[in-house]
Every structure is written in C-alpha cells, then in structure tokens.
Amino acid sequence: MTRKVGIMGGTFDPIHVGHLVCAQMAAGACGLDEVRFVVAGNPHFKQGCSVTPAAMRLEMVSLAVADNALFAVSDEEIRRSGITYTADTLRQMHEREREAELSFILGTDSLITLPDWKDAQDIARLARIICVSRPGYQADEGLMERLRELGFDVRMVFAPEVALSSHEVRRRFVRGEEVRYLVPDDVIAYIQSTGLYQEVAA
Question: d(Cα 89, Cα 39) in Å, to the nearest integer?
Fold first, then answer.
C-alpha cells in the first residue's frame, strides 16, 4: 500500500500553533500517513536575514511534535551544504522513498509565489501540492491556471485560520507579552531556558 507523506518545510523560527494546525488539517483532509517537518538549513529566501541556528530550530520543532504520532522531523536540509531549495529536498526524498506518494504542504501566501520557485516544474513532477488557507490571502483563477500549466496538482484545504507568524511570536517574546497557547509549552520552556530571542531585545 502506498504511503502518503506530507512534507512541511519552513524556517520554524520558532514553530507555533499555526504550523501545527496547518499540518493537522492537511493530514486529515488528504488522508496522509505522516507529516514530516523539514527544518530549513540555509534557505534561499532568508539570505541576508538573521536566523536562529539550525540546531536550535530543529530542537524546537522536535519538542513541538513529540506528542503527535502522525508528525516527524527531518534534518536533511540542515545536513546539506549550501543554499537549500525545495526542489532538491523533494528529489532526495523521491530517490530514497520511491514507493511513497509525496505531498508538499504550504499556505496560500506561499502558493502565490510557487510558480517562481527554483525548478518549479520539478516540484510539480515530484509532489502534489496541499494548500491550506491563510488569512488575508486568496488564490485567484489566474494563479490556478498558471499552476496547472506548470503541471501542479493542487488540493485546497480550508482550515481554521490562525493569523500568526513566527515574526509575531518573536516580537512577543522580546516584549515579554503573552505567548501561551500560541506556542507549545515545551517550546516556550526551551526558549526561556536558552534566552533565545532576548538578544534582539538587548
């Protein structure tokens, strides 16, 4: 029986409930056997930006998903040298797990830019796209037509909309504002114990 694997890539700086809701809704709607959180190593879209060390981001994701048997964590982008691209990651996974049916999970905000991603047609060939609704973003028919022309198979999933970003979470930590229920408790404890995001405040 073909194993259905959802891939959710991201910087996860830090991971928050919006990521987890997105993954769970995608899995439920599309019958996924696993959702694999792929922690970005050196993402091309973050060049020139300050990003928390990969090992710390990986630890936060591991803590966040530990109580969900459906979720798994991958460090393969972290282990790969150079700038990391989704197409390269999917190629590696396809080569290693030829019997698996891969789906790439993203939000509507990312879907809008998908046609311009590096090797977009390879992404379309290697994985189905599961797009989970995001507040303030909408995929119009022009975008959907362009994606179809590139060979993308897109499944839209409408989920409870959580208007939250990692940037907002970091801002809350810096200002000492409430983060409970926005971030898993174990991740909050890790951030507090390591002093992460406090250097920004200083």
Answer: 11
Question: What is the number of residues in the chain?
Answer: 202
Work out whether strand 101-107 and strand 128-132 pair parallel, antiparallel, or are unpaired. Answer: parallel
SS3 state at 7: strand
- Does the predicted TM-score (pTM) go above 0.85? yes
- Tens digit of pLDDT per residue, the chain (202 long)? 799 999 999 999 999 999 999 999 999 999 999 999 999 987 765 555 688 999 999 999 999 999 999 999 999 999 988 888 999 999 999 999 999 999 999 999 999 999 999 999 999 999 999 999 887 888 899 999 999 999 999 999 998 878 899 999 999 999 999 999 999 999 999 999 999 998 644 3
Omega prior to 115 cis, within 30 of 0: no
Sign of the torsion angle spanned by Cα atoms 178, 187, 76, 49: positive
**Peptide bond preceding 160 in cis form (omega within 30 of 0):** no
